[in-house]
Amino acid sequence: MQYEWRAHYLDGQTAIRHPATVRLMRRGLEVEAPGVWTRFWAYDDLRQTQGFYEGEEVRLEHGGELPETLLIPDVDFLASLHEVAPHLGPRFHDPARRGQRVRLTILAGVAVVAITGALYLWGIPVMAALVTPRVPVAWEEGLGRSVVEHLASRELVCPDPRRQQALDSIVARLAATTPSPYTFHLFIVNRPQVNALAAPGGYIVVFRGLLEQTGGPEELAGILAHEMQHVLQRHTTQAVIQHASTGLLIAALTGDMTGPLAYGLQSARVLGQLQYSRRAEAQADAEGMKMLLAARIDPAGLIGFFERLMKGDKPPRTVLTYLSTHPSHRDRIERLKALAAGAPGPPVPLLPDSDWGDVKALCSAFGPGTPPP
To answer: pTM for the complete prediction?
Structure first.
């Protein structure tokens, strides 16, 4: 039996992974950051949030709202844990029972296929809401990659490494405010519409038209924070599972890793026309504002961007795409102002050494872009 395991430690304050060693004890884990510190975490104080599916790394959290986290890549860790501490029972997932769970999941998927037409109208949304929290991150990432292949294909993405690096640094500053199982990827697409959307697994797509409408990096940061929250809250994953097809729902239920590849185009079409629920949009606004404030980014940029979009009785046609897929902006602006009032301190400038006019011209050298289908 193996008692010592390699792991990664996250402190709950940043997204930086630190190498760590975990030793199994009867009453808890001995966690060591080599040459720095050693701590004891009692099993009663731990919760498992990942590692329920074959091939998925184990994630253990310790603490409250911003927990410390251990990521153990070797899935055999759980089997050894149950041998060392058999009294834990169902507190931690037991891989020995995985086969039984898979069989039950497949039966549940078959039952979904047999739902009648009347049940279909409400059964799919309910099932999507139940399944989404249990979908492995690796499954979401596969679906997101497949979606991006259609929404941000190679010929549509603006390839400018210098300017892209500046934009990626905004994403990194936002992501560093909260522990997350996702690695975020930003794509700027050479299309004139003023729009942005999130795909499952940490993929954010911003259209050229929106980037060029921004007056500064703080404005873009606010939009990115909102879309990143759709990923973190799994709104996007739930919406795609709900609207794409019953087949994708069954793939999610069974953990079928080929499902995301098969439904990539259909999922991309869903995202292109998706309108989130009022509750999901309000949550993304609230959590996105918290992310902005935690990153010490001035929220006035986001508010100013929306106020500028709403000027005049008839916004430009390219702006209507964004307005049609997001909440009423007049009410939204007032809510954002109220949320921004809770800023803990003065903001720290974004990209102080960059010319934003130059950065947002990332697509200018590549022509007017491909018109939407």
So the answer is: 0.59
